[in-house]
Write a structure and sequence with these properties.
This protein is an alpha+beta fold. The protein has three helices and seven strands, in the order H-H-E-E-H-E-E-E-E-E. Helices cover 34% and strands 43% of the residues. Strands 1, 2, 3, 4, 5, 6 and 7 form a seven-stranded mixed β-sheet that branches. Strand 6 and strand 7 form a beta hairpin.
């Protein structure tokens, strides 16, 4: 009986680990695309109806996904370097949430820090970013290496 329980526990951990990697993939790909100024790769991680927002001192600011992709594509490779730590992943069926504190570097110089909150949806067997909201600040930053 203990062997069966251990086997089920091990299989469940393996499956969650696999699912976790699948969920993380578009998040990590987003930052790779930014670092490489790769518009096509960047576009591939978002759903067709994705929403992008930033919390500012004046409230919540909406950003157009196509404008974001266009601005990234105008950069040089390695100009944008957002370093993240994945702190939490929660999933239920075809919905997932990922929380990532970050440090942002522009042309190798520390710029700001904050946190990203992603909502992902699984579409046609693939995780896509549906909603991204972030904070940005210059003080009380813990730089991520």
């Amino acid at each position: 009986m203990n062997k069966i329980f251990a086997g089920v526990l091990l299989l469940g951990s393996f499956c969650f680990g696999q699912n976790q990697q699948e969920i993380e993939k578009p998040v990590r790909t987003l930052f790779t695309a930014m670092k490489n100024a790769d518009a096509e790769l960047l576009k591939s991680v978002f759903s067709e109806t994705a929403i992008l927002q930033t919390i500012t001192k004046d409230g919540v600011k909406n950003e157009d996904i196509n404008d974001f992709i266009a601005s990234v594509s105008k950069m040089q490779k390695n100009d944008l370097d957002e370093r993240i730590t994945i702190e939490a992943i929660h999933a239920d069926g075809e919905l997932a949430s990922v929380f990532t504190p970050y440090s942002f570097y522009f042309k190798d110089k520390f710029s700001h820090c904050g946190a990203n909150s992603f909502q992902l949806v699984k579409q046609n067997g693939e995780w896509k970013i549906q909603y991204l909201i972030d904070t940005r600040r210059k003080d009380n930053c813990k730089e991520i290496q």
